[in-house]
Design brief:
The protein is α+β, with helices and mostly antiparallel strands and about 130 residues long. The protein is about 25% helix and about 35% strand. The strands form 3 sheets. The protein has a 4-stranded antiparallel sheet. The protein has a two-stranded antiparallel ribbon with strand order 1-8. Strands 6-7 form a two-stranded antiparallel sheet. β6 and β7 (about 115) form a beta hairpin. The longest helix is centred in the N-terminal third of the chain and has 18 residues, at about 25-40. The N and C termini lie close together (about 5 Å).
Amino acid sequence: MMVNAHSLWFTQMIEYDVPPGHQQTLAQALVARSEQLAQRCEGLQGVSVQASDDGCRVLQYLQWQSRVAWAAAASSFVEEPFLELLRQHQARGVNFAAYQTLRSLVRGADGGLHCQVGEAQAYQGA
């Protein structure tokens, strides 16, 4: 089963493990960086920055129009001071994950969940 990389969203998740006193400042820095990234990259469709209840983790969720849009934007990431961000907020670990969206459900006016992105063209092969 192969996913068609041109037809669906591409989601990137980055989880940061930080000392409790650094969670809030890292989250604020990621929001500011995400706003700058959105101005430079039209393919960025949405960003979410989330903080864990234990105060030790921050999750950055970036939703791209496609894997192609992400790849086009990734060429400018070399200029990003990522390692400096990690040092400044004393990140003890960083986990990266990327996913191709197969389906996206949203709550409609009727209260039910409805498919926002279908799977009709999601698969090639068997």
